[in-house]
Amino acid sequence: MREVVIWSGGADSTLILHDVARKNVPVLALTLDHCQVNRVQMKAQLRAQKRFLVWAKKQNLSISHHTISVSSTTISAW
To answer: pTM value?
Structure first.
């Protein structure tokens, strides 16, 4: 069984990700790179996520992370 967490890199979603991963279940953390976040903010978010993932690996937490790019045309199609 694998859990999926939508992970923005903020405090709330990071806390949820950590809580789920502590249950010794593999977790897939998904980040959406979309047009509503500016590039500077997205780069800062990704740096914070990388730091957390390094720490999580040292804690033997099973987290894989994928970023999905979503264009404005995809969003308007929803």
So the answer is: 0.79
